[in-house]
Amino acid sequence: MSAKDRFNGPWLSWLLLFITYATYGKLIKHDGASPLIWALSAGFAVVLAGILTVLWPWCRRILLWGFQSDFGYLIMALTIATLAVAAVTQFHLFVYGAMLVAASLLARVDTLAIKVNRVSAFLILSLLSLLGLGMSWWLA
Q1: Residue 122 lies in a domain
Q2: Alpha helices in 1-140, H assignment, sequence order
Q3: 41 — alpha (psi -120 to 50), left (phi > 0) or beta?
Q4: Is 95 within a domain?
Protein backbone atom coordinates (compact mmCIF):
# COMPACT_ATOMS: atom_id res chain seq x y z
CA MET A 1 0.00 0.00 0.00
CA SER A 2 1.51 3.31 -1.04
CA ALA A 3 1.65 6.39 1.15
CA LYS A 4 -0.96 8.05 -1.04
CA ASP A 5 -3.43 5.19 -0.50
CA ARG A 6 -2.81 5.18 3.26
CA PHE A 7 -3.96 8.78 3.66
CA ASN A 8 -7.01 8.69 1.39
CA GLY A 9 -9.12 6.61 3.79
CA PRO A 10 -9.54 8.51 7.04
CA TRP A 11 -10.52 11.90 5.65
CA LEU A 12 -14.16 10.98 5.27
CA SER A 13 -14.50 9.72 8.83
CA TRP A 14 -12.55 12.71 10.14
CA LEU A 15 -14.87 15.04 8.24
CA LEU A 16 -17.85 13.16 9.65
CA LEU A 17 -16.44 13.57 13.18
CA PHE A 18 -15.99 17.31 12.62
CA ILE A 19 -19.52 17.70 11.19
CA THR A 20 -21.04 15.63 14.00
CA TYR A 21 -19.54 17.84 16.69
CA ALA A 22 -20.44 20.97 14.71
CA THR A 23 -24.05 19.78 14.51
CA TYR A 24 -24.09 19.04 18.22
CA GLY A 25 -22.62 22.47 18.90
CA LYS A 26 -25.32 24.07 16.78
CA LEU A 27 -27.94 22.25 18.86
CA ILE A 28 -26.59 23.45 22.17
CA LYS A 29 -26.07 26.96 20.78
CA HIS A 30 -29.70 26.99 19.60
CA ASP A 31 -30.86 25.82 23.04
CA GLY A 32 -29.04 28.76 24.63
CA ALA A 33 -26.56 26.64 26.57
CA SER A 34 -24.53 28.19 29.33
CA PRO A 35 -20.72 28.32 29.24
CA LEU A 36 -20.73 25.37 31.65
CA ILE A 37 -22.51 23.20 29.07
CA TRP A 38 -19.98 24.23 26.43
CA ALA A 39 -17.12 23.38 28.80
CA LEU A 40 -18.69 20.01 29.66
CA SER A 41 -19.15 19.26 25.96
CA ALA A 42 -15.53 20.11 25.23
CA GLY A 43 -14.46 17.98 28.19
CA PHE A 44 -16.60 15.10 26.91
CA ALA A 45 -14.92 15.34 23.50
CA VAL A 46 -11.42 15.22 25.02
CA VAL A 47 -12.28 12.43 27.47
CA LEU A 48 -13.90 10.34 24.75
CA ALA A 49 -10.86 10.80 22.50
CA GLY A 50 -8.63 9.84 25.43
CA ILE A 51 -10.62 6.72 26.24
CA LEU A 52 -10.58 5.57 22.62
CA THR A 53 -6.86 6.19 22.15
CA VAL A 54 -4.44 6.69 25.03
CA LEU A 55 -6.49 4.99 27.77
CA TRP A 56 -7.80 2.14 25.60
CA PRO A 57 -5.59 -0.66 27.05
CA TRP A 58 -6.70 0.24 30.60
CA CYS A 59 -10.38 0.49 29.58
CA ARG A 60 -10.16 -2.80 27.72
CA ARG A 61 -8.84 -4.53 30.84
CA ILE A 62 -11.70 -3.08 32.91
CA LEU A 63 -14.31 -4.19 30.35
CA LEU A 64 -12.88 -7.69 30.13
CA TRP A 65 -12.73 -7.91 33.92
CA GLY A 66 -16.41 -6.96 33.97
CA PHE A 67 -17.28 -10.08 32.01
CA GLN A 68 -15.36 -12.31 34.43
CA SER A 69 -17.05 -11.52 37.73
CA ASP A 70 -20.51 -11.23 39.21
CA PHE A 71 -19.73 -7.71 40.39
CA GLY A 72 -18.81 -6.76 36.83
CA TYR A 73 -22.11 -8.12 35.54
CA LEU A 74 -23.94 -6.11 38.20
CA ILE A 75 -22.18 -2.90 37.23
CA MET A 76 -22.89 -3.52 33.53
CA ALA A 77 -26.55 -4.27 34.22
CA LEU A 78 -26.89 -1.05 36.25
CA THR A 79 -25.13 0.93 33.53
CA ILE A 80 -27.36 -0.48 30.81
CA ALA A 81 -30.46 0.20 32.90
CA THR A 82 -29.35 3.79 33.49
CA LEU A 83 -28.69 4.29 29.79
CA ALA A 84 -32.11 2.82 28.98
CA VAL A 85 -33.79 5.30 31.32
CA ALA A 86 -31.77 8.14 29.78
CA ALA A 87 -32.73 6.96 26.29
CA VAL A 88 -36.43 7.02 27.17
CA THR A 89 -36.53 10.26 29.14
CA GLN A 90 -34.03 12.34 27.17
CA PHE A 91 -34.21 10.72 23.74
CA HIS A 92 -32.77 13.60 21.70
CA LEU A 93 -29.76 14.00 24.00
CA PHE A 94 -29.20 10.24 24.07
CA VAL A 95 -29.25 10.09 20.27
CA TYR A 96 -26.77 12.97 19.98
CA GLY A 97 -24.50 11.26 22.51
CA ALA A 98 -24.69 7.97 20.64
CA MET A 99 -23.95 9.80 17.39
CA LEU A 100 -20.88 11.49 18.91
CA VAL A 101 -19.58 8.16 20.22
CA ALA A 102 -20.23 6.41 16.89
CA ALA A 103 -18.45 9.11 14.86
CA SER A 104 -15.51 9.01 17.27
CA LEU A 105 -15.30 5.23 17.03
CA LEU A 106 -15.35 5.37 13.24
CA ALA A 107 -12.58 7.97 13.20
CA ARG A 108 -10.54 5.87 15.66
CA VAL A 109 -10.91 2.76 13.51
CA ASP A 110 -9.67 4.71 10.49
CA THR A 111 -6.68 6.01 12.44
CA LEU A 112 -5.91 2.41 13.41
CA ALA A 113 -6.17 1.37 9.75
CA ILE A 114 -3.46 3.85 8.74
CA LYS A 115 -1.34 2.88 11.77
CA VAL A 116 -1.34 6.22 13.59
CA ASN A 117 0.10 5.93 17.10
CA ARG A 118 -2.13 6.49 20.14
CA VAL A 119 -0.94 9.98 21.04
CA SER A 120 -1.30 11.25 17.46
CA ALA A 121 -4.76 9.66 17.21
CA PHE A 122 -5.73 11.36 20.47
CA LEU A 123 -4.59 14.71 19.11
CA ILE A 124 -6.42 14.18 15.81
CA LEU A 125 -9.70 13.11 17.45
CA SER A 126 -9.56 15.84 20.09
CA LEU A 127 -8.63 18.57 17.66
CA LEU A 128 -11.34 17.70 15.14
CA SER A 129 -13.98 17.43 17.87
CA LEU A 130 -13.00 20.72 19.47
CA LEU A 131 -12.77 22.45 16.08
CA GLY A 132 -16.31 21.29 15.27
CA LEU A 133 -17.62 22.57 18.59
CA GLY A 134 -15.67 25.80 18.30
CA MET A 135 -16.83 26.50 14.77
CA SER A 136 -20.48 25.97 15.71
CA TRP A 137 -20.07 28.25 18.75
CA TRP A 138 -18.44 30.94 16.66
CA LEU A 139 -20.69 30.78 13.57
CA ALA A 140 -24.08 29.69 14.85
Answers
A1: yes
A2: 3-6, 10-30, 35-52, 56-66, 70-89, 91-113, 118-139
A3: alpha
A4: yes
